[in-house]
Amino acid sequence: MNNKKSEYNKEYWLKNKDKIKKRHEEYLLKNADKIRESRKKYNINNKEKIKTYLLNNKDRIREHSKKYRLNFKKQVIDKYSNGENKCANCGLTDFKNLTIDHIDGNGEEHRKKIGMGAAFYKWLIDSNFPQGFQVLCFGCNLEKGARK
Description:
The chain is mainly α and about 150 residues long. It has helices at about 1-30, 30-45, 45-55, 60-80, 105-115, 120-125, 140-145; strands at about 100, 135.
């Protein structure tokens, strides 16, 4: 009986994936405050359980975080390089060495407000990729900063 039910659920999910995801997103938006409060209570009441989980799953959490950050970086680099994924100055295409540059040179001040890394990339995505940024490799970005 359980096998039939799980098979049915899997088929239903595959057929209605977009509809289910949309409904879930709507629920999360509608109930954001309630969910946030519930999570807060859970975290307060389960500190030791959470601590144990984090200690026992360091590698898994680290890997998930890496994928999370990399996904944001890929979206941002792709957008600001018009899909070319290369440095606007020297043409370097080594993705690991590509970064986002504040064209007007106010990066340090902006990072203090927004944050660095994934927080910055997420801000760019959430802000619908505003003007004033370009893709540079770390070398060109450092050189530009030194010219100030």
